[in-house]
Each structure stands twice: as C-alpha cells, then as structure tokens.
Specification:
By secondary structure, the protein is mostly helical. 76% of the residues lie in helices and 2% in strands.
C-alpha cells in the first residue's frame, strides 16, 4: 500500500475508533469496591486496536480524540478526561511500541501485560502529582476525596496510599480486561483495520 493511501486509511480508522471510544466512555460501570467517582469502561479498547493495527501514535490519537469529544459533557471540568487520556496513553503507547517490534500472539501478550503494568504504576504518579491536585483545587477537597476512599477501607490515611491500594490494581485490571478482549478480536479485525486481504 502506498504511503499516502496508508495514511488516509489510518486516519479513517482513527476517526471511527475515536467515535467508538467516545461512545464506550458513556457506558460507565460502577464497582462496589471503588469510590463512586471511579468507574469502569471499555473505552481504551478502540485505542489499543488502533495502536496494534496502525501504530502506537495512532492509538494515542484515538485516546486524545475520544476525550476531546467527551469534554463537551464533562462533569469534572476536563480533569477526568485528562486523567483518562494520560493513563490510556501509557497503556497504548507502551503496548503499541512493543507489538510493533514483535507482531505475534506472544508479542501481543507481552505488549499488553507491559502496557497494563505501565498504566497501573504511572496512574499513581500522574494522579498524585497532576490530576488529584486539580480536583482538590476546583472540584472537591482532599478530605472529601479521602473520605470516599475511607468508605471502602477505613484504615487508609492519605491519598498516595489510596492510589496504591485502589487505583493501581484497578487500572492494571481494567487494562488487562481490555487487552484480553483485544487478544481475541484483533486477528479477525486486523485485515479490515490494516486494509489487507486475508491470506
């Protein structure tokens, strides 16, 4: 495929996947073991599929565009969307870069595990230093958010510990679920996403 045609196809895939990611962001699933403001969704799935099919930067672009679309109905002044974008970027960029080097089932598995682990660890740092301070300044006090965590586990005494106990395993598990779905559906979708005929 010529470079111009490939870029056009990737852009088309990116647009469709961004719209799908936005729709999936609207389907929020509350979890009884997490504070109410943290909910599960499958919106990273289109981004990971795009990263595998078109390249990691296209996956990051899907993450950016789905959150840009969601800004129009944000209940968090864009802070939640910023957090979602950062975590999704860690996930799809790491996974996409590794899969780009090793395009196989084993490569996809390693890439997905590495992406989920990276997102899990770095979500603690980005939330602690970037997004939660913005929450404290513009939306809810630190004590109010800490109280929501303490409703689930009374013994936690500071936000950093909350992020390690709650957000890290939640993010890791969420991205593992997304990766597992991708693992099963990517191969049949790959010819469509990459514009190649099945061999």
């Amino acid at each position: 495929m010529r470079k111009e045609n490939k870029t056009a196809r990737n852009a088309a895939v990116c647009a469709v996947m961004s719209a799908l990611g936005y729709v999936l962001m609207l389907i929020q699933i509350p979890l009884p073991f997490m504070p109410a403001f943290i909910q599960f969704d499958f919106s990273d799935l289109p981004a990971l599929l795009t990263a595998f099919a078109c390249g990691p930067l296209w996956g990051v672009l899907v993450s950016l565009l789905k959150n840009a679309l969601h800004l129009f109905q944000s209940a968090t002044l864009g802070i939640g969307e910023l957090s979602n974008f950062l975590i999704a970027t860690f996930f799809v960029l790491t996974a996409g870069l590794i899969y780009q080097k090793k395009r196989s089932k084993k490569g996809a598995l390693i890439a997905s595990l590495a992406g989920a682990a990276t997102a899990g660890v770095l979500c603690v740092l980005t939330n602690y230093f970037i997004t939660y301070p913005l929450y404290f300044k513009f939306l809810m006090s630190e004590q109010a958010i800490l109280g929501m965590y303490q409703e689930k586990l009374a013994s936690v005494k500071d936000i950093f510990l909350c992020l390690v106990i709650f957000n890290l395993p939640f993010t890791f598990g969420k991205e593992l679920i997304v990766a597992a779905i991708t693992f099963f559906i990517y191969k049949p979708l790959s010819p469509i996403l990459r514009g190649k005929k099945k061999s």
